[in-house]
Amino acid sequence: MKNRIKSEYISWILLLGIIVLFLEFSFFNRGLIFSLLVDVGMIYFGRKWKDRSLGKILFWLGIILLIISIFSMITIKFFLLAILIHFFIQFIQAKKKTEHIKPVIKEPSIKLEKETVIKKKPLFSNHLFGQQKTPDHVYEWNDVNIQTGIGDTIIDLSYTVLPKGETVIFIRNFIGNVQVLVPYDIEISVNHSVIAGSTEVFENQESKIINQAIQVQTPLYDQAEQRIKIFTSIFVGDLEVKRV
């Protein structure tokens, strides 16, 4: 019951946040969308021209302006206020919480054994800044599921042995590029979502993509014994999948 009330409470907060966001874009701050697009464009072209001084200036200036634009939004202030009120209510309830007398229940004589699980070390971890790359030597494969802030991710599958069946790569990135190097005998499926960037899956290229979702796969994917499913979600950046 408590979990249901908490879920409904969160749903109402999200619904009100969406309404506030709509009102902000429609009436109170119509230039915000243009400002956000300009900031994202500066970051995108700054990464494209990162070898030049102008590109570095555009990139960091775009990040600073984007952060300022986001935190100046009425919607963000609404969510911060909602979080503050939530913690205040939790604090008051904790103070008023009374001691409950619980009945003592005798444990059954039959003890169930705990189920054993194996903890594995992931290839990558969630990073806010910096590049991540698979080793340049033979390594043991584990499925990838990470979230990153600003930086590139490079996965080279030529140095590992993939298991039979479906291998999963799941990457959510704010700003940065994702590159996946795939052996020639492996079939792939790509499910990619991006706000601003470009994609290159083998010989198929799409540049200057704005707010699109792309799904492609190789012809023999469904019948293959070994196959890779790639999920990527990038705010600003490029995706490259190529054979090695």
UniProtKB/TrEMBL annotation:
The chain crosses the membrane at residues 12-37, 57-89. InterPro entries: Cell_wall_LiaF, LiaF-like_C, LiaF_C. This is Cell wall-active antibiotics response protein. The keyword ATP-binding does not apply. Keywords: Membrane, Transmembrane, Transmembrane helix. NCBIfam families: LiaF_C_term. Residues 129-241 form the Cell wall-active antibiotics response LiaF-like C-terminal domain. It holds the Pfam family LiaF-like_C.
